[in-house]
Amino acid sequence: MPLISHSPEAGVWLLTTPHTSYALRIDETGAPGHIAWGPKLSLAEAMDLAVPPEEAQSSFEGRRAVGEELPADDGLHYGPPSLQVRHADGTRGFEWCLQGHEVLRPSPGAEELVLRFRDRLYALEVALHYRVREDTDVIERRTVLRNVGNAPFDLLRADSAAWTLPPLPAYRLSHVTGQWSAETQLHREPLAHGETVLTSRRGITSHHANPWVMVDAGDADEEHGRVWSAALAWSGSWRITAQRTPGGRAGFTAGVGHEGVLLPLGPGETFETPVCAGLFTDGGFGAATRAWHAYIRAHVLPRADEVAPVLYNSWEATGFDVDENGQKTLAKEAAALGVELFVVDDGWFGTRRSDRSGLGDWTPAPDRFPEGLGPLADHVHGLGMQFGIWVEPEMVNPDSDLYRSRPDWVLHLPGRPRTEMRNQLVLDFSRQEVADWAYGWLTRLVADHRIDFLKWDMNRAIGEAGRPGEPGGGDVLWTRYVTNLYGVLDRLRADHPGLRIETCSGGGGRVDLGVLARTDQAWTSDNTDAVDRLAIQHGFAQIYPACSMSAWVTDAPNQLTGRSVPLSFRFHVAMSGLLGIGGDLTRWTDDELTEAAGLVATYKRVRHLVQRGAMYRLGGPVGEGPTVVQYLGDGAEEALILAWQRGPRHGAPHQPVRLRGLTPGSRYRDTDTGTIHHARVLADYGLRLDLPRGDWASTLLHLVRLPEGTP
């Protein structure tokens, strides 16, 4: 069966994924209209649903508020527009005239529908792209706009896609909010009537929101219910507007940029939006999460099949007090624990002794590394580990040689103050010469010092976004900054195919599908408190897989919160993602080092399940019960259960945990105790967790399926 089918007579297109369908048509006005998004349909069934929209009930309604594939701002559309154009004569809007369509086959197992339109009067072409694949229910959408005339015009809004939901008795919105060190806090709340705007105006994805949404009828849970969701692949400012109409319909539109910023499009110029990917599932939030994880591993992350190494990062041990001998000592301790990647954090370059100076001068500090980084890299490699380093290429301290020589390279407005945050200014990556400069020193640094890993940080938001001397530069830079950033990352990966890159922006300030297509993992939060991390990682993993989620074990009491929890609890929390260690190992006791080495070895035995397995949330980080996560391997041959209990309350009920996805009729052996469990008992009656007594208890259970006939 083709992935894309078409009825020319009815003007209906049907997109088919393994379990779902998406249908659209050209309506009576020539605009692309939505038909259905949900359970599978045949083309004939989709045509049954392709009925003209109801006429307005009064002269105050205009065009339907939701139901168009990309609602344009015209005289009779009063909902949130996905496309806003202003021509040189002041005329706005877009009149849809279909020019044709084509079905592309961009890769094996994938098909892409392209619908091409042109405005009836003005020289603007709009192409709507829809890509579907054989192995995922995720649908990728994007929009390409081209000025084919001789006059410039302004794009006031150019979203990637608008998504229409079916009529439901109620609508509930799921999304995350947060701030620095408290990112990705999950919220599920009724979708308000009117418009709900989720956005970042900071030039980065932001700690405060993340560009994805889920919508259900208010009755979905982890295992049941229909859920519609979408995620935007963009690492700059963005906006998602969800709308619920008085007439009982809902939808949302998503794209780059924020209000008050336009994009000038000159003759012959093209603007291509990032992908907005959408997913429908009828298996609840858990099925949605697993579908997103599988899609991101297969089609977003560049090397998701690679086993991520256990890393050590020196930041919390040394701060800015970085020198060759101290790092060599930490490297020796880390190697003894079984660490596979040693990362030197901030403080290794220029005059960097605090956050007040040195950013921009990316050469090893001669008083700390007299012979450069080479001897340390050799030492780390000689211990059997890979070598990584922290960089912040987009920033500069005013107290730096770079700023003194090129003060014009920072974002600034003529006559206005250059506001410092964290004692630093933002380099204008929208300028090609700045992006080329960054690429040049980065590729030399990686090559000259045999670097295997870059922790790419960005420690302030964009502000005073101006490009003096360039008309429209302050508007252009919001998108060009991000595309140039992507270009630097793409060139680095092409130069150094084995290089791993971690995206970081003061923690989770730049995490999205756009940057994950160019990096290997994300620093989830600067908050390494294992207790706080339960909620942070719970929200992160709604969309993003564990193989992209960096997590560290750090010292107790925690540097940020002052809380002390057992070493095993800290390890078990970090082991639910990409395990890292960030404590001062020179201060750990012999018992702690021995325990840590054992836990690292345990993680290595099960990390294939964490990094590649299907994740099931068996208990969330709310209420009195334990937080429980299960990872299931291919073919249900293995299962890993991680559980954390914040603290006991005498008399609190102890409910068994029902496992998911096990093969019925099979038996599973606990690799630690040798106990054999029946799959039906684990699934239907549950497993009683053997959590230690006391505060901050945790446990890890690894089950392996026994071959049939095993006594």
Question: Can you characterise this structure?
Answer:
It comes from Streptomyces werraensis. It catalyses: Hydrolysis of terminal, non-reducing alpha-D-galactose residues in alpha-D-galactosides, including galactose oligosaccharides, galactomannans and galactolipids. Pfam families: Glyco_hydro_36C, Glyco_hydro_36N, Melibiase. This protein has about 700 residues and is an alpha+beta fold. It folds into three domains: about 5-300, Beta-galactosidase, Chain A, domain 5 (Distorted Sandwich), CATH 2.70.98; about 310-610, Alpha-Beta Barrel (TIM Barrel), CATH 3.20.20; about 615-705, Sandwich (Immunoglobulin-like). It contains 13 helices and 36 strands. The strands form six sheets. Strands 6, 7, 8, 9, 11, 12, 14, 15, 19 and 20 form a ten-stranded antiparallel β-sheet that branches. Strands 21-22-23-26-27-28-29-30 form an eight-stranded parallel β-barrel, surrounded by five helices. Helix 4 runs parallel beside helix 5 (about 375-380), helix 7 (about 430-450) runs parallel beside helix 8 and helix 10 packs parallel to helix 11 (about 565-575). The protein starts with a strand and ends in a 6-residue tail after the last strand. The mean pLDDT is about 95.
